[in-house]
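Researcher: Here's a chain I'd like modeled. Treat it as a single chain, no partners, no ligands.
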Amino acid sequence: AMLAEYARLAAGPRDVLVEYLRAFVRERLAEPLTLDRLAAHANLSKYHLVRRYRASTGRTPMEDVRLMRLDHARDLILTTELPLKSVAPAAGLGDVYQLSRLFRKRFGAPPSSLRLGASPRGEPAYPLTAPAVRPRMKSRMVKRKISTSGREAIE
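Model: Modeled as a single isolated chain. Structure tokens:
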């Protein structure tokens, strides 16, 4: 599925709307951004914006904003000596708790380990790409039948 998505994105022409909104977001990563504000900037309704954006990228505009903010936070952690409590608002992620929670979800490790685990050459101790998304396991429901003799049988 991931290869199919990559092939779709690589083969298709770039959507001008997506590039336009990404440039807008990059200039305002530290500011509060809402779907209404993005839609107003694109001069579209928020519903039409989400449909069109998802058709082009496979993500909603706000998912893309979150990923851009996390990538910016990662770059700040690697290239500056700013404390994490300064990196979070600079990347538009609110506070250190939000930064850590989202960072761990996206990159599989807390942001502090990126800075602490970097080699002298600046290479991180773990990959900087998002891990492959594993499908969620469906819960296994055990069906129990009670026989006429009163004993349970599990299927």
